[in-house]
Amino acid sequence: MAYSDTAEPTRRDFLYIATGAMGAVGTAASVWPFIDQMNPSADVLALASIEVDLTPIQPGQSVTFTWRSHPLFVRRRTPVEIQAARMVRVEELLDPLARNANLPENASATDENRLTPRVGGQPGTAPMRKAEWLVVSGVCTHLGCTPQASTPTDIQGDYGGWLCHCHGSQYDAAGRVRMGPAPRNLDVPPYEFLSDTRIRVG
Amino acid sequence: MAGPSIYQPKSQFARWMEARLPIIGFTYDFMAYPTPRNLNVWYAFGSILVAFLVIQIVTGIVLAMHYTPDSSLAFNSVEHIMRDVNSGWLLRYMHSNGASFFFLAVYIHMFRGLYYGSYKAPREMIWILGVLLYLVMMATAFLGYTLPWGQMSFWAATVITNLFSAIPVIGEPIVQWLWGGFGVDNATLHRFFSLHYLLPFVIAGIVVLHVWALHVPGNSNPVGIELTIDDKVPFHPYYTVKDLFYVALFLIFYAAIVFYSPEILVTTVNNTPANPIVTPEEIVPEWYLLPYYAILRSIPNKLIGVIALFAALITLFFVPWLDSSKVKSARFRPTYKIYFWLLVVDAIALGYVGSHPVDARLFNTAIPLVWIGRVATLYYFLHFWLILPVVGRIEKPSPLPAGIGKPAPAELSGSVR
To answer: Which residue among A98, A103, B122, B201 is the one 20 to 30 A from B78 at the CA level?
Structure first.
């Protein structure tokens, strides 16, 4: 007989399970390349960092660059915008985390924590000067549209930062979400100041 | 398809063939399929849908002979089809408008099922396979909409793929896996083309199961009672002719759009090449997805909005068990009939809300459209999860006839009164 009804497991039972298990592992191992091929390929992952010259950007302006095939906002904030952003208490925010790749993950979303760590910290740097520069990803954290920047001449939304026309999310001048379906603040990418007028992102 | 064959091979060849590959007998039985003699125009949409699946596959295969799925070339290859390829403009307009008419037909087909209770026992599997077909159709249409690589193509792909980023923890890796990068890009376009070519054949496969499941219990009918063989006629020639007539009528309507107003359903923004840096002022999906888009936007929380969107679709699978009424056809369900038409109005209202900007107001009044969207979303879920189960229990159906064109049996109608 091909099988037995004895209570004790037989050699045949063992072979049956072992074969089945090997078959399952083998199937999983052969299916994996077909799934994994859809993940970002080596050339996409190797996308280089970009350098941005800050000189041409005027106060109140938000300029869009491309980084990792996504828009990147570099905003030169006016003193009024900086002050407004600093007046906001963290408890009022929808997302209390800084979302700053240059800081620990649990950093709170104060205006300072949305900038590079050097700002206001190191001796010899002028804090107000660097506080002008906000560098954030231009991808709305809701469904990935590019929000439109609010400038003194073209006001978008009620919080002086960005308004996403797709589904109505609004961000303030520190790129923090203040209203709408977006769950997170705009991401701050890893970047550093190479000089006073030059940054490298990525 | 169900039961032993009634085919009697007559020639020597047919007998030889029948003993080896009984394809003639299968076709014979298929065409002799007993069909209720009282099916009205709304039952012709199954045949119309088959016609459109064929149109989409045939036009799609020839379009793929001229299209290039590379992000730097895709937009221009579509322009090449429109301007240079012989009859290319016609094939593309047939394909793009064909999708719209495919959905128009499927919506009528689905509402017919809801009106006449076609999903009720023993026809639950037909309905479930139908909902599955509808979902795969939506996926196929979405993938196809990305291929011209215009502004709306690009941003629709971005928004829809980002729906998956709402999933906690694994959302982000899933979205990057779908994209093959950090955003919608060349890798995304290539795979979307490959899948857009594949899925219609998956649809065709599920259609076979859908029709198979139909042929076991047989068609439902407008009266909604199970019929005897005396009330049935063979599918051929009765319904081949009747359905072909309606297919022709529907095709006239389709041809009028293809030839005289081919861009009426297209957002003009999509005639601009994709630009990953600039989102268009307003993103709208194709009209057939607008109700779900309105449901997504009516909820000001990302995760819950996405859950509501998918819940609205998944709900359809449960309809055969949510509807508690034993009476199938709405003809004999005075209360349900009212709610059915409310659902139709609700779907249209959701579509209207979805087609307008998120901060729009209703007809120059002060009422924000998003609130209309919220009420309509609420009704959508209430209709299926509350009204269908409750109405079936409390409603007094009017007496059912004993057969087509026969009065209700006296004792039954007496007891209902």
So the answer is: B201
* Cβ neighbours of residue B52 closer than 8 Å, sequence gap 6 or more: B98, B101, B102, B105
Start-to-end CA distance of chain B, whole Å, equals 42
Q: Which residues of A touch B361 (CB under 8 A)?
A: none
- Pair B324, B388: CB distance under 8 Å: yes
CA distances from B225 to B219, B330, B349 (A): 11, 12, 33
Nearest chain A residue to B278 by CA: give it: A146
Give CA B261 to chain center in angstroms.
23
pLDDT band at A126 (very low <50, low <70, confident <90, very high): low
User: Which residues of A fall within a CB distance of 8 Å from B281?
Assistant: 165
A167 labelled catalytic: yes
Question: Å from B362 to nearest chain A CA?
Answer: 17
Alpha carbons B193 and B187: distance in angstroms, whole number: 10
- pLDDT tens for A88-97 read 888 888 888 8
CA distances from B292 to B196, B283, B287, B359 (A): 21, 14, 10, 17
Q: Do B281 and A142 touch (CB under 8 A)?
A: no
Is-above-0.90 flag for pTM?
no
Q: Is A181 close to B302, i.e. CB distance below 8 A?
A: yes
User: What stretches of chain A adopt beta strand conformation (E)?
Assistant: 50-53, 62-67, 70-76, 133-137, 148-149, 160-163, 170-172, 177-179, 191-195, 198-201
B131 with B316: CB under 8 angstroms?
yes
User: How do beta strands A198-201 and A191-195 pair?
Assistant: antiparallel
Helices marked H in B163-318: 171-179, 186-215, 235-260, 290-297, 302-314
Contact residues on chain A for B182, CB-CB shorter than 8 A:
40, 44, 47, 68-70
Is B300 in contact with A180 (Cβ distance < 8 A)?
yes
Quote the DSSP letter at residue A165: T
- The residue ranges of chain B whose pLDDT is under 50 are 413-417
Tens digit of each residue's pLDDT (9 = 90 or more) over A154-199:
788 888 888 888 888 899 888 899 888 888 899 898 888 888 888 8
Q: What are phi and psi of B297, to 5 degrees?
A: -80, -15
Among B159, B277, B296, the residue with its CB nearest the CB of A71 is B277
Cβ distance B182 to A69 less than 8 Å, yes or no, reads yes
